[in-house]
From TrEMBL:
Domain PucR C-terminal helix-turn-helix: 483-541
Family designation: Belongs to the CdaR family.
Higher taxonomy: Bacteria, Bacillati, Bacillota, Bacilli, Bacillales
The name this protein goes by in its record: PucR family transcriptional regulator ligand-binding domain-containing protein
Limits of the CdaR GGDEF-like domain: 316-431
Pfam families per record: GGDEF_2 (PF17853), HTH_30 (PF13556), PucR (PF07905)
Source organism superkingdom: Bacteria
Source organism per UniProt: Paenibacillus artemisiicola
Record-linked InterPro entries: CdaR-like_regulators, CdaR_GGDEF, PucR_C-HTH_dom, PucR_C-HTH_sf, PucR_dom
Gene3D superfamilies listed in its UniProt record: PucR C-terminal helix-turn-helix domain
Purine catabolism PurC-like domain boundaries: 5-122
Amino acid sequence: MTVRDVLARPAFRHAYLAAGRAGLGRPVRWVHIIEVIRFDQLLQGGEMILTTGAAFKNDTAAFLTYLDQLVRCEAACLCIEMGHHVSSVPDEWLREAEAVGLPVIVFPRSVRFIDITQDIHAYRINQHHRALQELEKTSRAFHRMTLASQGVGRVLELLRDSARASVIYVPQDGPPKFVPPVPEREAEAWLGFLADWRSRASAVGGRSGESNDAEGPAVAEHAGRSVVIQPVGAMGKTWAHLLLALGRKPQEYEFLILDSASLSIAQDLLRTRYVEERRLYSETLWVDDLLHLRLRDEEQVKLLAGGAYRQLNELAYRVVVIEFGDGSAPASGFADDGTESAGIHLSLAVRTVFEGQTFHPLMTLKNGRLVVIAFDKAPKRPVKERLRQALGALGQLKAAGDARLSAGVGRQGRGLLQAHVSYQEALQALSLAPILRRDPVFFDEIGVFHLLFHIADKGVLDSFVRTYLGPILDHDEAKGSDLLRTLKVYLDCDGSKRLAAERLFIVRQSLYYRLEKIEELLGADYMEPEKRLALQAGIRAFQLLRPDAPL
């Protein structure tokens, strides 16, 4: 509803437009009566203001203050009733209103403001109800098109007709679509506008080409038109952008209809990707054989990897082993319709997330663990940070009630036939997640555990632990004390009593008492370099032997 529409209502049959004809197209969101001189905190924009002039009477300075607030609050128009407070509207007032384009409507006789508010509000509510009905009808049509696989083109045409605006669809891996069609030069200008917008948004930490699909629409200006930009995507990645170019300020209906269209397009794209993922999922089942050394012949690997073999064999990679929750199959967090379907859903989600961080993933799912060979396509960018971001995004895709995932990451490798090395390292790193209490665990950050893993005889480890930590362990078991943890924290803090007390959440006097007891049990030389190193290695060996110990 615009100011022009308001003037056609019966309640305005005796009113006339005194100034601001250029603003007749302004939308009217609501009606508000204001009889105070200060009100800029009361308006949200788009209100039609009714007044008897009690706030400014015949005072020009007061009126200009009143008018300035209306302009700053983006009010739709001002309606003044002639009567007790204002008998006429001075030409100076009208010139000022004309200069800012604010419509001024004059009631030459007394009117009932309640009749105006009831009429306009009823009209707006009915209009909103009709818009919701139209939105529901259009959304159903979008949904039917998606189910009937009628393609994105039909959705875009219906969006154009429903919103009465130009529609631009820009996928990341295909040609753009303009509805209605535009000349080539204009199309290039629109694509340049979108690229500039994405670049600016990325620079300020906002949306980017890899943006999260949860982000809502943005509004920008281009070629004198308001443009609503809606990301289209799912599973943490944007697959396209949908633009609605309007010759007016966008209203709630445009945002809702655009959101409905983007969801329908996303469903269509997701179905297409699901079909492709089913093919890829079947083709990469050989990855499990590769990692477990059941596949050793290079020619056979070439055949199974296909045309991608040469590139993959030259790229650096890291193997990532992911365990969900309690180690059960991750299907519960992604799908409930069978093992294969769940695996495909998970594979699609993981592929989307890892590709978003410029990795090429080869995957296999077995025994509740997902294994990803992540080939690095951007070696100049920090690989660990990108892997952390990918795993964090994957964790967010899990159902809200599921436990968080754990992940182990092997060292960098090259050559597909050597992938089993990084895989074994990733498994060892994953086994340390509950001990080190961090996720993900990178194998090249596990320190002395790297050596301890190679001591196959657990009796040797146990003997080493007893040699250096036996008195502490016996005392803790007999007295229920916490000396082993105290020793670990104290050594990890490089002998800083202040830091150790803070990490143990005890006062320094308590720490001093514990350290005296440790010295009594281990000897006064326990902080000497050789013995200190042996104690730290012994504590790690103890953690490896008893991962459930509360350290």
